[in-house]
Specification:
300 residues, alpha+beta, Immunoglobulin-like, five-stranded antiparallel β-sheet, three-stranded antiparallel β-sheet, 10 strands, rod-shaped, transmembrane helix, zinc ion binding, Peptidase_M1_aminopeptidases, protease, metalloaminopeptidase activity
Length: 300
Amino acid sequence: MALDGERGKQEEEKKKKKKKKKRKKKEQGAQKSGSLFAAAMGENDAALRAGGRGLSGPWADSAGVRPRTSERHITVHKRLVLAFAVSLVALLAVTMLAVLLSLRFDECGASVPSGADGGPAGFPARGGNESLPGSARRNQHAGGDSSQPGAGAEATPETPSAQPPSAEERELGQPWTQLRLSGHLKPLHYNLMLTAFMENFTFSGEVNVEIACRNATRYVVLHASRVAVEKVQVAEDRVAGAVPVAGFFLYPQTQVLVVVLNRTLDAQRNYNLKIIYNALIENELLGFFRSSYVLHGERR
């Protein structure tokens, strides 16, 4: 009986020890699982702080920090607005510069005393045929030959110096009314001399033309516009002398100068035509014209 009692006590002690071991194992397992969960939570928090969007390990490192698309759009919009503003300012500056240049050019032209047509005083209207005053020409041709008939005088179909064509000549046709020049005369050589006067924007000219007469005619027709003709001379050679000039006139409709002779030019002979004239230096791209530009703030 005593042995049975001791064995029972030993078995109970063994059972108690086993229960204690099981409890310790459970407690140790609970502690390990708690520490693992806390470590995982710490890693997730660190990943979120680092911008890894909850990724851990190498995934968080590869994700990195990404800029927001809205900030990119704002930057692009700012640049576009700045470029538009700069282009608008440049356009306004160019427009103002063009206006200032045009005003200065008008002031330069307005500084010259104006005549009836807006040109220098004493000059003929554009397309007219009046002579310039002697002071404007600087007496370039004061010593010219005045013995030539019609020299230094203006002639129009209505004035006595230029006899109007007869009825027979009208029937044959007026060469100055044609759009193309007549083929009766052929120019062989031109010798031109020009003298410019920049103080009033005028010039004087003298041209000598060697012409060959193909068919007999008493009219010399050549292109001329916006000039004031002073003198016209026609000569065959030094031996034969001058050919009398009845008169001359401008025909604005076809922009020609008509020289009317007192006798007919002989065919198959050469003649020399001398014309002295003056005119305005034009503001437009026509004939002898002027232009200007600005360099370093100076108008030239």
